[in-house]
Specification:
3 helices; about 15% strand; 5 strands; alpha+beta; three-stranded antiparallel beta sheet; about 100 residues
């Protein structure tokens, strides 16, 4: 989860500080989300191919430009198999923060 500790909000809810899990997002259309989208959409091609969307969004969260909340136990996991990003084989994954 980006190496930073989520901030406790209430039972079962945390504020993410630098989260790298774009496979299960719910987005509310706000000015901050529009700004994040604009940053991603206008990245220079030479830079964009070096940065995974997870890392760009994580940096925006850490900078305070994007607010993301997460449950203590995720609603969405990842199926087992070969990762399209790392090429490594993984077992089924579910994330929990406690």
């Amino acid at each position: 989860m980006g190496g930073t500790v989520p901030q406790f909000v209430s039972d079962g809810v945390y504020r993410a500080v630098n989260l790298n899990r774009t496979h299960g997002y719910v987005v509310r259309n706000t000015e901050r989300v529009k700004a994040a989208y604009w940053r991603l959409a206008t990245m220079q091609p030479s830079i964009a191919h070096q940065w995974h969307i997870d890392y760009v969004l994580g940096d925006l969260m850490q900078a305070g430009a994007l607010t993301v909340y997460m449950p203590a136990r995720w609603f969405v996991g990842q199926a087992g198999g070969v990762s399209s990003t790392s090429g490594k084989k993984h077992a089924e994954l579910w994330w929990e923060w406690q």
